[in-house]
Each structure stands twice: as C-alpha cells, then as structure tokens.
Amino acid sequence: MAVLTPSSAGPLHTSDALNLRTGGAESNVAASLAGLGHRSAWLGRVGDDPFGRRVLADLAAHGVATDAVETDPDRPTGLYLKEPVDGATRPHYYRAGSAASALGPGLPAPELLATAAVVHVTGITAALSDSCRRLLHTLLVERAVPGPLLTFDVNHRAALWRGSREPAAEVLLTLARAADLVLVGRDEAAALWGTEHPDEIRALLAPAPRLVVKDADVGATSYTPDGDSVFVAAPRVDVVEPVGAGDAFAAGYLAGLLEERPEPARLRLGHLAARAALTTTDDVPRMPPRHDIDPLLVPDAPWSTAP
C-alpha cells in the first residue's frame, strides 16, 4: 500500500502536509529480510497509478525483487493513512476495490513460489476480499505449492473485517492451523479466540508444527515441533511508534530460521528487528548492521549493548 502520514503530530484534519511512504505487512517483512541480508521477493498487485509506481520503487530500493508483481489497469493501489491520536497511531484504510483485493485462488508466479525457502502470508490479506481468502486457503490449506515452509502471521485488523460475510476468528483459525509456522500476538489471540496464555494458544492451534506467541514489551514464546517451549524477554525500548514492529519481528525470526540458528537466537533476532521498527515512524526500519547485532544473539547477551 501507499502510506500517508502527517508531517507533524496531530489529527489528520488539522494537518497541512502529508508524507508519502510504502507499507503493508508482507512487503514490510520482505524489506526487513532484505535489510538483514537475505534475498526476498514480494508478490502482489498494484494499480497502474502513481501510488503503485511508488510502492514498486520503494521496495526495489530496499532490495526486494518485484519482477512478478502484477499491475492492474482498472483498480487503484491500496492506501492507508496514519493518524497520531493521544500518543497512539490510528490507521484509516482505503483498500476496498483495490488492486490487491482482486487477488484470487490462481496463485501468482507459481514457479517462483515453488523455489522459495519460505513463503510468508498474513491475515491482513485474508481480510481484503472473498477472493483473497480463497487465495490463502489454496496456499495454506490445499498446499498448492509443495516445498516451501509456509508461514502465517495472524495480523488481525478488526477494521478490515467490518462487513465481511465470514467471521475473522473462524477464518484466521483455519488458516493458522494449516501453516507450518504461526506468529500471533497474545492480545490478538485473546480478542479473537478468548485465549489468555501462550499454552492455551498452542493447544488451540494444534497441530501447527511451530508457533511464536508475541507478548508486546514482555517477550516472545516459541513452541517447537518436538513440544519444547522457549521464552526470550524483550529489550527495553523508548517507543516512537509501534506500527510495523510485528512485521519486523517476523522478519528477524525468519532470518534466524533461514540461518539455522538455535531457537533462542531466532527470538532474539526478532526482538532486535522489532526494536529497530519501534524507534522510527517508518513502517520499514533501517536494520542495524549484522556485525552489531549478531553478537547479541547468544543466550544471556545483555540487551543494554543493543544498537
């Protein structure tokens, strides 16, 4: 999506200028993975309009391959606005009828998907339209692309589900249970499914082979296929804006997985990537150099030395 943000703090209706950026859960993950030194590509649809061209240019600048992105001549690029309100950020989505909402069960670039090590999707895509939900069902439940590790971030956005003919809780639970790796916030799991503890989420999502439960500034717990659980506390951060932190965490964790690091190191890399996102108003943060953060991936390395 294109993202518009007021150039100064305050409600949108009083702002005289807006900054143009690019955002979106899956593209944020792809860009952050590239920033951590991994090859990534983004598949999606944009409109044949200035916003679509900006999205492609920004992703390319982050090192993300966009060769297989489709351009829709009839539908616009999705848009959202970020409004600072009372110390928080309120999103306003304009995605109904967007180019991305026209994605369907015919998988884009199946040859590229088949050669990927990881294919990452989120519940935000499922919220865009019936055809987008069919796309994720084809990928996750029907396993139309054998081979890649299929990862799913629940990413519940209640505003996007208003007016949907299907309840978010049911759709997202079905998709999560079908994935190889699930990432979910403890707060969103509680809102969706009434769970209060990571162990309850694990029991609900079984047989998902691998699960990561994020608990904001407390830390993150992962459940491995052999039944073990690992918890790593989050570093202290002076938060500028929380938007994009979950996507950055997913990128950090996936980078650790691709590098075949131990489970605690994957969670630590997720925290460090999220920390970078929390200290900027951009949806895609500038990742710290690997030579600065890799020494912090060992157990018990002090967070106080984090860049």
Please state the overall shape, judged from the principal axes of the Cα atoms: globular
What is the top-level CATH class?
Answer: Alpha Beta
Distance between the termini: 29 Å
Instruction: Tell me about the largest β-sheet.
Output: 6 strands, mixed
User: What is the strand tally?
Assistant: 12
Computed over alpha carbons, the radius of gyration is 18 Å
Helix and strand content put the structural class at alpha/beta
CATH topology: UDP-N-acetylmuramoyl-L-alanine:D-glutamate ligase
CATH superfamily: Ribokinase
The helix content is: 25-40%
Portion in beta strands? 15-25%
**Tally of helical segments:** 12
Q: Quickly give the CATH architecture.
A: 3-Layer(aba) Sandwich
**Side-by-side strand order of the widest sheet:** 7-8-9-10-11-12
Structural domain tally = 1
Order of helices and strands: EEHEHEEEHEHHEHHEHHEEEHHH
Ranges where pLDDT stays below 50 over 5 or more residues in a row are: none
Average pLDDT taken over every residue: 92
Family: Belongs to the carbohydrate kinase PfkB family.
InterPro entries: PfkB_Carbo_kinase, PfkB_dom, Ribokinase-like
Keywords: ATP-binding, Kinase, Nucleotide-binding, Transferase
Pfam families: PfkB
